Amino acid sequence: MVKAREASGKRARALTSGKAARKEGTGAESAVAPPAIILVNPQLGENIGFAARAMANFGLTDLRLVGPRDGWPNDKAHAAAAGAAFLVERASVYASVESAIGGLHYVLASTARPREMVKPVLSPESAAVELGRRGDKAESCGVLFGPERSGLDNDTISLADAILTAPVSADFASLSLPQAVLLFGYEWFKANSAPSLGRATAFDGPATEGIAFPDTRPATREELLGLFSHLESELDRSGFLFPPEKRPSMVRAIRNMFHRMGATEQDVRTWRGIVASLSRKHAPRGKKVS
Amino acid sequence: MVKAREASGKRARALTSGKAARKEGTGAESAVAPPAIILVNPQLGENIGFAARAMANFGLTDLRLVGPRDGWPNDKAHAAAAGAAFLVERASVYASVESAIGGLHYVLASTARPREMVKPVLSPESAAVELGRRGDKAESCGVLFGPERSGLDNDTISLADAILTAPVSADFASLSLPQAVLLFGYEWFKANSAPSLGRATAFDGPATEGIAFPDTRPATREELLGLFSHLESELDRSGFLFPPEKRPSMVRAIRNMFHRMGATEQDVRTWRGIVASLSRKHAPRGKKVS
């Protein structure tokens, strides 16, 4: 635990801390040390592996196991983790919850069942903010998840500072163990990492919201107006914009569609080609017209 | 599909519409029809079952399968769904993506990879808000999820209005199929579930942000697909889609433009007219061809 705390302290120093700095980030995914994910008496190796995978999806790196039912190491956990097997390999194993959380400053207990305990209840979203705030102050945090069948018992929950409960359908409130880990990790990542979507590749960074224009740019008005004039003159010629009293509203409707499309420069060229091609008497390109 | 739209319309009438009303209530979990979850060529029955379970957690009820690899019904899907087996039992199975989305008005494609497509990218959070807004207007929506190994291919993605991509660690961006469904469902539920008793209100609420469709409605996929097929066959005839090796990317680019346009039923009819008119040998309407 001391080791983990040192590492997290180092990370906090090496990177930046504080929300403002974190929002700007340029390389590091998170400036706060990620909380430990502590699986208490997990039953199925597969679920340990799936949980590890969910952790890796969201930059969580500290997996702790308390008394896994089928012993440790566990081949099924390893296989289910797929690309996140490295987290399974370096998981730490404890004999008791007390020893697993001994070095932490703040602990949440994940449970879907209402408890008769006087203890704050946090949604994953609120928990993520709270853990980020504490991480900024170099506090070490962790989240307890119970065994698949029964969840955390009241004695274990009483060791935690607060309860973590996800919003779920009242008709079907039972989250599987890896899914509960996933939702927490997702909110933690959203709240505490530089925002990016999906996978970064050698060529592309991760996606951001909105429309990207790879290798092109939005069309200028001039380009669009050129397209309008081309299309409308062909439609006049072909007789589509008929009768004359309807022409203005038809033209407006067509122009509005192109505006809504948010056409790129490439799109305008494509449409110029389409209009020219359809307007030609059908002599397919590549064939000689006799 | 008509049935689905009627059902969602009824639901909107029976319950409430509008964000404010939804936030207040106390019983009904959601006032908007939940979007369809469409699994395209899912490989493992277990994952279909886990996805169904994630759907049930968040009040999603419309599971559609396109060509499940191991056939249908599938015992493993049933077993993995546990308490959500009822969703597996009433899943609808389709031979093609086109038929699965034919009755929908707005379709998202879930993918982790940045694509060279000019198509809006939404996070699960933004997608949940967008689908809620469209659901309020009784639009039927759906989200496509690809096969486990490869994800959705570009041709399938080109059938969607926008891309759904979750914020994940760039180092380990691959979400499993049920986990991707879970994150979307979670955000959908957070944004659209009503801790509220459904108060009946008038069917039409006040105006909302976005595009209004007076006297018309968004085009169905079927109508758009009909337009695509008409336009593309004319473009084949006219030689525009040349050379053959470039045809698939040209077709995708054109389809994507129409999706971004958010075409109405009226728009599709207009385009059918434009294509027909431009393709005709120029004999203006209203003049006799001798």
Report on this structure:
The structure is a homodimer of 290-residue chains. The relative contact order of chain A is 0.12. Chain A has 12 helices and 8 strands. Chain A has a 7-stranded parallel β-sheet with strand order 3-2-1-6-4-7-5. Chain A is α/β, with parallel strands linked by helices. Residues 1-29 and 283-290 of chain A have low confidence and may be disordered. The first copy, chain A, has helices at 2-14, 19-24, 45-57, 75-81, 85-89, 97-101, 124-136, 154-157, 177-192, 221-238, 247-261, 265-279; strands spanning 36-40, 63-66, 92-94, 106-110, 121-122, 141-145, 162-164, 210-211. In chain A, 45% of the residues lie in helices and 10% in strands. In chain A, helix 3 links the parallel strand 1 and strand 2. At the A-B interface, helix 3, helix 9, strand 8, helix 10 and helix 11 of A face helix 3, strand 6, helix 9, helix 10 and helix 11 of B.
